[in-house]
Amino acid sequence: MKEITQSLRLSPSEIPHRIYGLENWAAGYFGVSDQGCLTVHPTRNPLLGVEVVSLINTLQKRGVAAPFLLRFPQILDTQIKEFHEAFRHSIAEYGYGARHRGVFPMKVNQKRSVVERLMSAGHRYEYGLEVGTKAELAAALTLQIHANALLICNGVKDRRYLEWAIKAAKIGKNPVIVMEEASDLKKIAEVATALQAKPTLGIRVRIFSRGAGKWEESGGETSKFGLNTIQLLDCLKSAHATQMARQIKMLHFHIGSQITDIRRIKSAIKEAARVYAKVCKMGYPVEYLNVGGGLGVDYDGSRTASDCSVNYSIQEYANDIVYTIDEICESENVPPPTIVTESGRAVAAHHATFITNVIRRLNPGLGGPEVDLAKIDSEVVLEMTDLHKDINQKNFREYYHDALQHREELQSLFNLGYLNLENRAHGEWLFWEICRKAIKFSHLLKERPEEFSDLENILASKYICNFSVFQSTPDAWALDQLFPIVPVARLTEEPTERATLCDITCDSDGQIDKFIDLRDVKQALELHSGIADSYYLAVPLVGAYQEALGMNHNLLGSVNEAHFLVDDAGKPHLDKVVRGQNLGQVLSSAGYDAPGLKEGFQRMVTAAESLGRLTAEEGASLTELYQSTIESYTYLED
Ligand SMILES: *Cc1c(COP(=O)(O)O)cnc(C)c1O
């Protein structure tokens, strides 16, 4: 027995990887310092890493409180480079006869600093943008992008959207309006005629190959977007009839986000390339084949086709796309198209890491046996005292089952009025202590019965963390998406607690109780005890979708945000701080504008003064206090 437990012991350097899976999801951007602290390497240089704790200290010195979002703009640069170089490499390798053009889909992260950084990092690749709403389009019209970059406007939406999508050409953009519905061509024809313009058009085509997993619904036959084969032919015919056929330059396919299995991508690309080839052969001068998004991120680090992972690399993704299109174009004898990609998640996810501080730890049954034992007279409780004393490796299953039964008896006795609170309290305490002992013994078994792993999950501590799941990791709530979660320090110290995380909303859904694991999904995360002086948790890979979807549930607003750059000597520089919303700002989104709040409070004070409840001085100081409260952070402060 001793030997088994010995060999299960992890060496300090194994802890961050075996317990938190760090090296599996780090993608070269995260590591562990000699001091056991989480490090970030924005350029993927293992020697140029910064400790997250030191960044937290910098922020605290500046009076910027947790929770915060740390942004590493250089990670965006690194991802943009990797992504585009992968396509360049495949194009060279297969001698592909056309180019690759990337665009960033704004819905993945519309934050100006993010989009601007992406556009400047992507300038030498002629990186462009994809928009799907008027607001995204309005922002895109103001952004500096390469003169050759594409501006893909998805859908026809309404007249105003369409007008701007067409007029974008006047200010030097290269808009492509992608039709999503059979009726779109007619709407475009009307507006374009009125504006005397000949916009470049694309057609979103629905394909049969589906994505898989949580995000699959956006592709496939039943998707809400795209033209089926009949509609495609109709659309081409009417374009021909209205002299618009030469404007149709793009075919667009998007099978969904986070496609976990490379085979799905291959089969979708095959189908798409065939459609392209057939349309070319009908004489339509299509130039661009847009393969949409879907390139996934390995959130759990398992490199498998499970929901939160991917079984392929960016290079394999590029290879499969380029190779498949090349092969099909060759066999169909049509010119190879410019390959357009709209990857968002894979480009943006790594650059942002969310940080929260643990506020306290709750544990079922904790509290201690501080009862007056003289007052314990219940037979059942006395029997439980014996179980607690005598439980051992041989009898623990039997004793645990006895304890379960005793606990039920206690409950009935109490309900019938036969048990006082002291007996009840002591009985509860004994029960949880017996459970704890039984779990310890169960770990020594070679094959642990399931009831004890379930029990262990029930007994997991709850770590209350200063954040809102709905604001900062909405997909953990909406889609049960898993993100890696890791303490920012003590990573080489064996964790002694198993915990789930609870946020500070008053919503029982405001918690995280599923965690990444190499083989499975963990119901509790191993964490350290002794959290009294600042214990911070990092949630990496939140740069895609989370900010855009985050919501002010319970009026917990956006979090403080800090941008860090790392110089050539490996030193961090705080580039920018963006304050999270204060109370006044979130309240104004609910209709309580700041001046109105102040006036409303002033009225209450005046009324109280006139009733003699407050002196004028007390009133003035209350008003002042209220004002500073309105300007404070929505999250818990010290
Ligand atoms: C959402 C979306 C994307 C982005 O997909 P990712 O999986 O994040 O790369 C690309 N294109 C279209 C049309 C989309 O709707």
Radius of gyration: 30 Å
* Name of the CATH homologous superfamily of the largest domain: Alanine racemase
CATH architecture call of the largest domain? Alpha-Beta Barrel
**Separation of the first and last Cα atoms:** 46 Å
CATH uppermost class of the largest domain: Alpha Beta
Tally of helical segments: 23
Q: What do the pLDDT scores average to?
A: 94
Instruction: Describe the main β-sheet briefly.
Output: 10 strands, mixed
Strand content: 15-25%
Low-pLDDT stretches are 1-7
Kindly state the percentage of residues in helix.
Answer: 25-40%
What ligands are attached or bound here? Answer: pyridoxal-5'-phosphate
CATH topology of the largest domain: TIM Barrel
Which structural category fits the helices and strands?
A: alpha/beta
Number of strands: 23
Instruction: Name the shape in a single word.
Output: globular
Number of domains: 4
